[in-house]
Amino acid sequence: MAIEEKWMHFCQESQYESLEGRTVELKSMRGEILNRIENVILGIVTSLSRDEAPILALPDRSNWDNTSFDSSIGLQMNLGSSVTTVRSDCPMSVDKFAQIMRIFMVIYKLVQSNSYATKRDIYYNDTQLFGSQRNVDIIVDDISCMLKVPRRSLHVLATSKGLISGDLCYMEADGTRIDCRSSTVVSAVSSNIAGIRNIVSSAKFVMIVEKDATFQRLLDDNFCTKLSPCIMITGKGVPDVNSRLMVRKLWDTLHIPIFALVDADPHGIEIMCIYKYGSLSMSFEAHSLTVPSVMWLGLLPSDLQRLRVPEDALIPLTKRDESKLISLLQRPYSASQPDWLKEMEMMQRSKVKAEIQSLAAIAPDFLTNIYLPNKLRYGGWV
């Protein structure tokens, strides 16, 4: 069984297995990761012994030609994808080569000692070498893709930016009990989703909320208990990996509908597509990040006409919006969702967009007391 398959099996079954069994399986995975890193280092040593400049080959995570679409998974990286090379003897890439080797060394020590570090920790380990946090973030994902292992199995964690609330209780990996059921409680999404266990919820659905401001408004209006028990989660815009992992965890565990509430603009649609189909840069890990059952609850372009949202609440599409919309229409997954396609084409024809907050132009409480209850009661999603 491949290591990525072992990791998925572990994440799904860990709450049912004995502690001893989990320990043995984790040791096995750690051993495989160490072997893969050692093989990379062996290749470098071999090149040096031949008086050749070492070269690292990284899968190209920015090339659409390297991905394919599967409706049950989303965007996934193809086997034998094209690569980009990082040479140790090239002035343009020697710094990146050194950065990669340093992070390999850190990861090896973390896995070997069964300890963890955040990407922020790694950056501050040598700020002069890395130059920026973004360089560390990209390289950690490159290494994950190169070794064909989930990023979290490298023992590198990322600080979560997402928030979650609603009818949900669970246990963190360190034994901390998280209770999100109070209408005033907002919990940060865990940095170790795989370690979450003992999930308890009576929620009827999960609602992904694009923006933190809308999330807070719904929280203030006690939305999670007014209509029916539910769970709300926001990645505060483009979601981080932990927010996506959490949505997937809830879907796998609770088997309830997942809805998305995003702005009626190309940016909001793309964010929703990341949750549903995945992203180009993380397509190598699509099997554990995507939730193909995500449904578009709102705000729909057709809602703007149907509800007669005042014109002064609508915003003209910019050139950048139009380019993003064309890109979305051409994505490999768009054809699989004809209703989504119609909504995007409607936006393209109308040349306007709207934020969720535009519904307040109809009535201050329209979103919480009328729009969402009717949508959920009468099936107004696509």
Automatic annotation (TrEMBL):
Alphabetical keyword list: DNA-binding, Isomerase, Magnesium, Metal-binding, Nucleotide-binding, Nucleus, Topoisomerase
Pfam families for the chain: TOP6A-Spo11_Toprim, TP6A_N
Native source organism of the sequence: Gymnodraco acuticeps
InterPro entries registered for this protein in UniProt: Meiotic_Spo11, Spo11/TopoVI_A, Spo11/TopoVI_A_N, Spo11/TopoVI_A_sf, TOPRIM_Topo6A/Spo11, WH-like_DNA-bd_sf
GO terms for biological process, alphabetical: meiotic DNA double-strand break formation; meiotic DNA double-strand break processing; reciprocal meiotic recombination
Catalytic residues identified in the record: 124 (o-(5'-phospho-dna)-tyrosine intermediate)
Gene: spo11
One GO CC annotation: nuclear chromosome
Required cofactor names: Mg(2+)
Compartments (UniProt record): Nucleus
Main location: nucleus
Domain Spo11/DNA topoisomerase VI subunit A N-terminal: residue ranges: 96-156
Protein's UniProt keywords contain DNA-binding: yes
Protein name per Swiss-Prot or TrEMBL: DNA topoisomerase (ATP-hydrolyzing)
Catalytic function, reaction form: ATP-dependent breakage, passage and rejoining of double-stranded DNA
Keyword Metal-binding: yes
Family (UniProt): Belongs to the TOP6A family.
Taxon lineage: Eukaryota, Metazoa, Chordata, Craniata, Vertebrata
Highest rank taxon of the organism: Eukaryota
Topoisomerase 6 subunit A/Spo11 TOPRIM domain: residues covered: 205-376
CDD domains membership: TOPRIM_TopoIIB_SPO (cd00223)
Enzyme Commission code(s) on record: 5.6.2.2
A single GO molecular function term of this UniProt record: DNA binding
